[in-house]
Write a structure and sequence with these properties.
single chain; 350 residues; mainly alpha; two-stranded antiparallel ribbon; two-stranded antiparallel sheet; 6 strands; globular
């Protein structure tokens, strides 16, 4: 029911947002707003972030128990949706968007959601991150900050926001693999204990998955609305936060997002090597290469990203930590190989 209602709400909200954006002239026209990274040829409104956030917020009111953790999660999502809306209208500089990422992540971690431990890939047991701790008195109560665990959680959420947001260059690409990843997080939430949250993590995962599935029908080729920065950042944000809550953490999330992660690592290294900022977009992502060099259609690229997340998500349900890490390494090597081959091919053609 949470997934179905969220899907229907997002599906119904999308045409309203499309109509609003068109009426106000908030359209991404590639003929007027030129940028190398853009692949669409006709003017399309962004606004996907508003569609997803409204569906998630309304469904949360129906199905979830509100507490400090859920309030923090929704507040962080609200920040990203608001910044996404401003970016839809004004094309913000990457710096304020990165600052918003930090605020959203700090809200979540500040509420008490963090990564206290990770599975030990080199042997049995886990690696604890609860030390060192900083204790202080606040309104008569002793508070503790787990410096390593909280810093790791903040960086983990910010990293996911950005790498997922970078993988939305063609119609249907981002909502498809985001919905698939969130479905697996929902399944894993039933397998692992979620601490300290008291609300149903699986329910929230299915709610967000439904919202992106509803957006997907309007974003599929030929797209009527794009996810925009709001949709991309919300996908990464919820995937990161829900991975922490479900107990899935690093290995499983890296598996589900292995292709976007590999693309992001290669992109950052490539831009830094060229003396460019890693935050400014270009036409060097994997989806660009599949589109430009290999001649893949937009539908094929979207299906590839979704299918890879589904396949790796299924494997994550059965593999142990070592198996997951090995699968991640193999997947990343394949992505790196394709991107290196394209770069070498372009260099030899000059």
């Amino acid at each position: 029911m949470p997934l179905l209602l969220s899907f229907l709400l997002a599906f119904a909200a999308a045409p309203l947002v499309i109509a609003l954006y068109k009426k106000q002239g908030w359209i991404d026209d590639p003929n007027l707003q030129t940028h190398a990274k853009k692949t669409h040829k006709v003017a399309v409104p962004r606004g996907g972030g508003l569609v997803v956030f409204c569906a998630v917020l309304l469904c949360s009111l129906f199905f979830l128990e509100f507490d400090q953790y859920l309030l923090a999660i929704l507040a962080g999502a609200g920040i990203l949706a608001a910044v996404g809306f401003l970016d839809d209208v004004f094309d913000l500089h990457p710096f304020p968007r990165l600052v918003a990422n930090g605020f959203a992540a700090l809200l979540v971690v500040g509420s008490g959601i963090g990564i206290a431990y990770v599975s030990n890939p080199f042997g049995p047991g886990v690696l604890h991150l609860d030390q060192p701790q900083l204790s202080f008195s606040f309104f008569g109560e002793v508070r503790n900050i787990w410096l390593l665990a909280d810093l790791f959680a903040v960086l983990f959420i910010i990293w996911n926001i950005n790498i997922v947001n970078w993988s939305k260059g063609v119609d249907g690409q981002l909502p498809g693999f985001a919905a698939a990843g969130l479905l697996f997080i929902g399944l894993l939430a039933n397998k692992f204990a979620a601490d300290p949250t008291t609300f149903n993590t699986a329910q929230l995962a299915f709610i967000v998955a439904g919202a992106f599935a509803g957006l997907l029908l309007w974003n599929w080729y030929p797209q009527k609305i794009m996810p925009g920065y709001g949709g991309g950042s919300l996908a990464g944000y919820f995937l990161g936060v829900l991975a922490i809550l479900s107990g899935a953490k690093l290995a499983t999330m890296l598996m589900v997002l292995a292709v976007p992660t590999a693309d992001a690592i290669f992109t950052i290294a490539r831009r830094l090597y060229a003396g460019k900022s890693p935050f400014w977009g270009d036409r060097g992502h994997l989806h660009h290469k599949l589109f430009d060099t290999f001649g893949w259609s937009r539908q094929r690229i979207a299906l590839f990203y979704t299918a890879s997340s589904v396949l790796l998500g299924v494997l994550s349900l059965y593999l142990n930590t070592v198996g997951k890490l090995l699968t991640i390494v193999i997947t990343m090597c394949l992505v790196f190989g394709v991107l290196f081959w394209v770069k070498i091919k372009k260099s030899t053609q000059k």
